[in-house]
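Comment thread on ticket #2218

A.B. wrote:
> Attaching the input chain for the structure job we discussed in standup.
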Amino acid sequence: MDNKRSGVVVGLCLFTAGCTSGAQGAGTTATVAGQPTSSVSAAASSPAGTDVPGLFSEPGEVTPGIYQTDLVGTPVQVTVPAGWSRFEDFALDGPDNSYFAFFDVEDTYKDGCNWDKGKAGIGPTVDDLVAGLKAEKGLQTTAPEPVTVDGFTGVSLVTTTDPKIADFSGCYLGDFAVWTVVQNRQIGKQQPGEKTTTWILDLNGRRGVITAGSPGEMSDTTRAAIDGMLSSVKLG
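C.D. wrote:
> Ran it. Output below, let me know if you need it in another format.
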């Protein structure tokens, strides 16, 4: 398993296939980790462009500022506050073991704990991913809520594990897997009860995903930082 640092695996439990160990504009509100998320629009006014430095162009801590990355072929501009660092090419790691990440999700699993039983075989749309998450055994989701991020529509929801799952020791390889992404990775939960807020967007016909959360409790300051990053997102 790829560890970011001791005790944290991107906050979401990142592990590669075959391993054995185991993210509002003015007047709107966006909250994370188990609380509802409403309509969100970008606060930043300048469009994403080549003059903006790449978010994942180098490893380590991120100097506060505006950066750019890519999400399913769509440029993404985000303003990163102090206290965040990069993990590989898709996630920011923050205080309270929090994370803010970007994904091109390919598929969900039939059973998060027994993920060796295979993938669900979902389709490419926003609704397909919602259906796959709702159907995944061992995973619980809140009701999807309509959301708009910088003019792109989609839904937001929160996922967590079934309360009956006390630990992951009985899961296949000791891990709980939620979905797969295009880089041949599996993304799951680091620990039972971990809440992940997920924004699933239709980006010009392709599905893009932004997630945020923490395996533990987050301070109000950390929540505000995540809300600020989401509010700063510019797409396209």
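A.B. wrote:
> Thanks. Noting for the ticket: The longest strand covers residues 152-161.
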